[in-house]
Specification:
18% strand, 5-stranded parallel beta sheet, alpha/beta, elongated, 4-stranded parallel beta sheet
């Protein structure tokens, strides 16, 4: 199936890299699965990352998406949703609104366990849990119950629509909230803080890097999924701002010969644009996982468009998706060596970007709890904004306005199957040894 938007777009970036890490390869990215209706805005800044304390310790590792880990509590104990009319706690300090059931129940339970781990540093403060069921309706109901139970601060919302519903409901209830959705929207809500980096920030980093490398035209092959569409739109805007343009794009499904056909269609457009035209810097941006990207680049190579358009033309650059950085697959191939990806860098031993950002958000909450042991709702956001920068896994973090800022967003280049930070313009184009 081919779907063409008014302008083309692409990709990237939302994952963390930890060279040498190993985890079970999921059937699809847990981050991509929960981006069910992504919005398209983000702000933030990059601050140098201080090292983590030596006693940071190893964090729990996730199992397959949607499945609880071996050491996780069962739904029969602290993770279960309270029964109607059941008293959860007398005015709990922190409440979690997470998907404890449904397709993302395992992910929600793991997120809750990570937050509990971080809050343990604040004199053992625990958190009451409320099930959003992974839906906007469930999120609104969970926030309502948390408000009725007298929570001081709410943390939660993972999927994009779920996160927006949590933010809206918390703002209506006057309940301060730290929201964990992967893409902050542009709406400013009273006493609502967005804790994670958005795709727009990462797309801007990649777009600037490509423009500085002399890329004028980008050609895009993107997953025909909400995740792929949202990533592509973010890149389209960012690349236009950086002075580039998207020459064409193709949406790719995994059905039968669809990837080969999409690559052939895009190659035909590239060839047509090059005919009789002056040489320009080009990039091919692929929003796919490692296996899908290898196939698509193989098809493009067969079509002959990954080579320079002429003897005096630059070799096209290849850029890839942050999905490449989830799991060990990238280290098992050299087919993607030389390609560029924009991502949030993480420090320490973590299972992935989601885990790192959740722990960082929980550490900010724990820091507030330690400095405001008896604070009420009225001082939560002001207290969070007043905190000095907190050394985290994704940066030196602080709260400014309605965002956690200080994320360490960088462009990396794949070398020998390992993503390495790039500080300057690329010195060489993409090559494949497979």
């Amino acid at each position: 199936m081919t779907r063409v938007l008014p302008t083309a777009l692409l990709v990237l970036a939302a994952a963390a890299w930890v060279p040498g890490s190993a985890q079970a390869t999921p059937p699809e990215s847990p981050l991509a699965r929960i981006l069910d209706d992504p919005s398209e805005a983000e702000g933030g800044e990059s601050v140098p990352v201080p090292p983590l304390p030596e006693d940071a310790g190893e964090l729990p590792r996730p199992d397959a998406p949607g499945e609880p880990g071996e050491d996780e509590p069962s739904s029969a104990d602290s993770d279960r949703e309270p029964e109607p009319g059941e008293v959860v706690a007398a005015k709990p300090r922190v409440c979690l609104a997470l998907p404890l059931s449904g397709p993302h129940g395992g992910l929600g339970r793991r997120t809750g366990a990570l937050i509990d781990q971080a809050l343990a540093s604040a004199e053992g403060v625990g958190a009451a849990r409320y099930d959003t069921e992974g839906t906007p309706q469930g999120a609104e109901a969970a926030v309502r119950r948390a408000d009725e139970d007298g929570c001081t601060l709410l943390v939660g919302g993972i999927g994009d629509r779920e996160a927006s519903a949590v933010a809206d409901a918390a703002a209506r209830a006057g309940l301060p909230a730290v929201v964990l959705g992967g893409e902050p929207d542009e709406r400013v809500r009273r006493d609502v803080i967005w804790a994670r980096a958005g795709r727009s920030m990462r797309a801007a980093a990649l777009a600037r890097h490509l423009a500085q490398a002399g890329v004028v035209t980008a050609w895009v092959l993107a997953q025909d999924t909400p995740y792929g569409i949202a990533e592509a739109r973010a890149f389209e805007r960012a690349f236009a701002t950086a002075g580039g343009r998207v020459g064409g794009q193709e949406w790719v499904t995994d059905e039968g010969t669809a990837p080969a056909e999409a690559a052939a269609r895009l190659a035909s457009r590239v060839t047509g644009a090059r005919a009789g035209a002056a040489c320009v810097g080009e990039a091919f941006l692929v929003i796919q996982g490692v296996a899908g990207a290898r196939r698509l680049l193989g098809f493009l190579g067969f079509e002959g468009v990954l080579q320079a358009a002429g003897p005096r033309c630059p070799v096209p650059i290849v850029a890839g998706s942050a999905l490449w950085l989830e799991g060990p697959e990238l280290g098992r191939t050299r087919a993607l060596d030389g390609a560029f990806v924009a991502a949030v860098r993480t420090r320490g031993t973590v299972g992935g970007l989601l885990e790192a950002e959740v722990l960082d958000a929980a550490d900010l909450v724990a820091a507030w709890l330690r400095t405001h042991p008896r604070g009420d709702r009225g001082g939560v956001v002001a207290g969070l904004r007043a905190l000095p920068p907190v050394p985290g896994r994704t940066g030196s973090l602080r709260v400014v306005g309605d965002r956690v800022v200080g994320k360490d967003v960088r462009v990396v280049v794949v070398r020998r199957g390992v993503p390495e930070p790039v500080e300057e313009s690329p010195e060489a184009g993409w090559t494949s040894s497979d």
